[in-house]
Write a structure and sequence with these properties.
Blueprint lengths: L1 H8 L2 E7 L6 H11 L8 H7 L5 H12 L5 H17 L2 E8 L1 H5 L5 H19 L2 E9 L4 H11 L10 E7 L11 H9 L3 E6 L5 H11 L3 E4 L7 H10 L3 E3 L1 H6 L11 H6 L4 E3 L4 H4 L3 H12 L3 H13 L5 H7 L1
The structure holds 6-chloro-9H-purine and zinc ion.
InterPro entries: A_deaminase_dom, ADE, Ado/ade_deaminase, Metal_Hydrolase
Catalytic activity: adenine + H2O + H(+) = hypoxanthine + NH4(+)
Pfam family, one: A_deaminase
C-alpha cells in the first residue's frame, strides 16, 4: 500500500543492531563450508526451522552457536557488507552497530580481526554510498566484570586506528540476574575514556535495571526499555529527560516479550511523549530488517504518518552522530 511505500522510503537511523544477529542462514551455511566448521544443521531450511524461541536465552543459545562460523577478517567483512546492503535497501542512512568481541575472542578470533572486517565494510559503505555508521563494543553480561575489563583492555590499543568508527560501549546478552551495576567499574572506565554509553535494560529484566543503567552506569540510551511501563515514576523521568529507548518490535514478538504486536507498548510510550525509536536488533533471527519492523508496528498499532516520521526522526536525534551531521538529517 501507499502507507508501506511511505515507510519504505522514509530515511531511517538504526541504533540497535547486533551485527552477529544479521547473519542470515545462507551466509552462515556458506561460511561454515568455507571455514570447515561443523554446524548442528544439515541445511539452510533446517536453520530457519530452528528459530522458534521462547525467551531471550533460547535465542542466545542459537545466536552464539551461529556466530561460531565467523573466523576471518573476510568473514566479518562479508557479514557487515550483507547488513549494509539490506540497510541501504530499507532507506537506512545511519547505523550504530553493536558487536560482541567476547563471542569471538573465546573461540581464538582476535579483537583485531573483528574490528578490521567490520570497519573495512563500513568504510567502503561510507565511500561508495555515503552510508554513515559507528561501532559500539558490547560486553556480555553473563560473563564477569573482570572479563569485560579485559575485553576493553584488548580493544583500547585499536582506538586510534578505528577512531572514525568506534565511539561507544554497550551491555548485552542474558539480562535477568545480571543487573547493570555488575558492570559499574568497567562503565566508569569507559566513561572516563570518553566513550558513549548504552545498555540493554528492561527487555526481560525489571524496571529497577533501567534505573541502575541510568543512575549507576550513566548510559545515554536504553536498549529496549519496554518494561519501563510497569513503573509510572520511571516513565515520567524518561519522558522528562527525553532518554531514548531503542525499541525492537519484531525481537520482542519473537522472544515472547509480547504475545502479539497489537499489545506492544511502543505506541503508548510514544504517545506518552517518550523518545521511542524502532530498530531491528537481530534481523536474521527475528524475521525482518528496519522496514519490516516499521511496517509490522504501523499495521499492528495504527501508527499515523506523523508518528512514523517522529519515530524515524527520533532515531537520528538520539544518535551519537556529530551535531552538524544531525542538522543535515533533521
Ligand atoms: C540480544 Cl535481543 C538481545 N538481547 C540481549 N542481548 C542480545 N544480544 C544479541 N541480541
Ligand atoms: Zn539487542
Amino acid at each position: 500500500t501507499s502507507h508501506h511505500d511511505f515507510i519504505n522510503k522514509l530515511p531511517k537511523a538504526e541504533l540497535h543492531l547486533h551485527i552477529e544477529g544479521s547473519l542470515e542462514p545462507e551466509l552462515m551455511f556458506a561460511l561454515a563450508q568455507r571455514n570447515k566448521v561443523t554446524l548442528p544443521y544439515a541445511s539452510v531450511e533446517e536453520i530457519r526451522t530452528a528459530y522458534n524461541f521462547t525467551d531471550l536465552q533460547s535465542f542466545l543459545d542459537l545466536y552464539y552457536a551461529g556466530a561460531a562460523v565467523l573466523l576471518t577478517e573476510q568473514d566479518f567483512y562479508d557479514l557487515t557488507m550483507a547488513y549494509v546492503q539490506r540497510a541501504l535497501a530499507d532507506s537506512v542512512r545511519h547505523v550504530e552497530l553493536f558487536f560482541d568481541p567476547q563471542t569471538h575472542t573465546a573461540r581464538g578470533v582476535s579483537t583485531e580481526t573483528v574490528f578490521a572486517g567490520i570497519a573495512r565494510a563500513l568504510r567502503q559503505a561510507r565511500q561508495e554510498h555515503g552510508f554513515s555508521s559507528s561501532m559500539i563494543l558490547c560486553f556480555l553480561r553473563h560473563l564477569s566484570e573482570e572479563d569485560a575489563v579485559e575485553t576493553l583492555k584488548l580493544a583500547l590499543p585499536l582506538r586510534e586506528q578505528y577512531a572514525d568508527l568506534w565511539n561507544g560501549v554497550g551491555l548485552d546478552s542474558a539480562e535477568v540476574d545480571n543487573p547493570p551495576e555488575k558492570f559499574s567499574k568497567v562503565f566508569a572506565q569507559a566513561r572516563e575514556l570518553g566513550f558513549h554509553l548504552v545498555a540493554h535494560a528492561g527487555e526481560e529484566g525489571p524496571p529497577a535495571y533501567i534505573h541502575s543503567a541510568l543512575d549507576v552506569l550513566q548510559v545515554e540510551r536504553i536498549d529496549h526499555g519496554v518494561r519501563a511501563e510497569e513503573d509510572p515514576a520511571l516513565m515520567q523521568k524518561l519522558a522528562k529527560t527525553q532518554m531514548p529507548l531503542t525499541v525492537c518490535p519484531l525481537s520482542n514478538l519473537k522472544l515472547c516479550v509480547v504475545d502479539d504486536l497489537s499489545e506492544h507498548n511502543l505506541a503508548r510510550m510514544l504517545r506518552a511523549g517518550l523518545c521511542v525509536t524502532i530498530n531491528s536488533d537481530d534481523p536474521a533471527y527475528f524475521g525482518g530488517y528496519m522496514n519490516a519492523n516499521f511496517i509490522a508496528s504501523a499495521d499492528a498499532l495504527d501508527l499515523s504518518r506523523v508518528e512514523l516520521v517522529q519515530l524515524a526522526k527520533n532515531g537520528f536525534c538520539a544518535s551519537f552522530a556529530a551535531p552538524e551531521q544531525k542538522q543535515l538529517w533533521l
